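Quick question, first post here. What does this chain look like in 3D?
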Amino acid sequence: MSSESQQTTGNAPEWSVSDLSGALKRTIEDNFGFVRVRGEISGYRGPVASGHVYFSLKDTNAKIDAVIWKGVFGRLKTRPQEGLEVVATGKITTFAGKSSYQIVVDSLELAGAGALMALLEERRKRLAAEGLFAEERKQLIPYLPSVIGVVTSPTGAVIRDILHRLEDRFPRHVLVWPVRVQGETSAAEVANAIAGFNALPAGGRIPRPDVIIVARGGGSLEDLMSFNEEVVVRAAAASGIPLVSAVGHETDWTLIDHAADLRAPTPTGAAEKVVPVRAELMGFVADLARRHAGAMLRLSDRRRSDLRALARALPGPEAVLSGPRQRLDLAATRLAPALARNARTHEQQLQALSRRLEARSPRLALVRLRTQLDGFGRALAAAKGNALAGERIRVANARDRLATLETRARNAFGQSLVQRGERASVLAQRAERAFGQTLHRRTDRLASLWALIRSLGPEAVLSRGYALIRDEAGALVRSVEAAQPGRGLSVQVADGSFGVTVSGGETGGAKPSVPRPARKGPPSGTQGDLF
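> Answer (accepted):
Ran it through. Tokens below.
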């Protein structure tokens, strides 16, 4: 390497990794603050645990990382799917942890009708596999509903066309649930409207519709996307009220058309399908009434002819009554002998019952019971006497045992009292000896403590010739500096106290002036004047 290159390298500024990453981040964000990128979604796995979404956008030659933050993902109209071609709008930034750049997506749009059709086809197959489009689950539309619910925009031409067509054909009570039929909130509003009509109670203040019409005018595929959303399709499939789909023109097809119970080519056609023409219905009913009257007349004529034919074939009254009359005469001739036999039979049965009653006469039963009762009375008297004698013997034995037990208890109680008296005397003697010993020890200890207190007290010190000096406030004077000239002091000795006055000395210290005591000399055995 030449010296010039070495000098240039040595003069280059030194960057830290964080500083260089921050400079690159600022440069890229300043130059690519807002971009729109078209590409195919790759590596999409759905939101991670934090709620953020990570994937890549690629084309035939390159790939760029993309991220959608959790708050933005919840507001997206078009959700990312693997392999879907989209146009992503956002800003380019860098991620220092991987030394890579990425686009932070703010919105997603489908890239062209082809991608949108592919998305709808994939969604249609998935929902069809769940059975939401099956024909067997679809309901029949009522022939003449009393209340019709309409889910559409209240300000568009669609609701007016439906009302006019219903007025022309057969006026009915109409409930309109206003919704947006285009925009980000349109799908949720339509689904809530269908669920709201189904939630109305039967017989409530607001009448429950017999049929629901979901209607919208024509438009582009993007305009009709609200009716291709999964939430709308599921709400239509779950509706307990028959639902008619009238979205777009006749050539427009949406996923709600597959889930609805009936598809109408236009909103006007939906009104024609839910109600008949009133004039035609009235003419049809009048024709049915005429046909019914003619059929009843023909039926009555035919029944009258049949009745006449049957009447001619019937026999006369005499022929009909001859057989029963002969059977009645025969029964009359047999009745008297039969009554006599029946009377004899019942008489024999009565005699047999009389003999059985005599055998079971209450008088005989009463005699037998009286005899048994007398026997029971004699046995009871004998048993009573035996029981009383046994009880007397048991009572006498019990009395003897009680007297014996009372004597034993009295003797045992006397012995117990003697033993307890002797034991109490022994315990009293032991307690008296223990109390005397304890008292002697406590007296000796108290005397020792009192002698110790007297030897350590201030009176013992004063008796050895020392004195305590206090000022006017009663505080002890502990140094010469506290004894100022002219100050009065109190001196305490062993046998009393007296006052002194401090005078000045040659060394600058205080010299107390001692007044002469009344006596001429100190008593023998005491300390003399300290000063």
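The first strand starts at residue 35 and ends at 42.
Confidence is low (pLDDT under 50) at residues 506-510, 516-531.
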